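In this supplementary section we document a worked example of the pipeline. Step one takes a protein sequence of length 75 as its only input; no multiple sequence alignment statistics are reported here. Step two produces a three-dimensional model, which step three serialises into structure tokens for compact storage. The input and output of this example are shown verbatim.
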Amino acid sequence: MFQSRKRKELENVIKQIRVDLANNYKDNAVENLKRLKQETEAADQEGKLKPKEKEELTGLIEHFEQDIKNFKRTY
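The serialised model returned by step three reads:
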């Protein structure tokens, strides 16, 4: 998906959000989503994201926000 160091960091945050959601760690997912938004915005402002990458990240952020909104505790 991404190649530069900044993009690699974004990919790691995305992976962590997926792990958090899979393991019912809503609070961690919310914090990591906040981090993903901030880092995406910073990378975009620095010109380190191609338009397609920005669009892909925006879609992922929206998807994660919906997942968190619909999050239900299983215990």
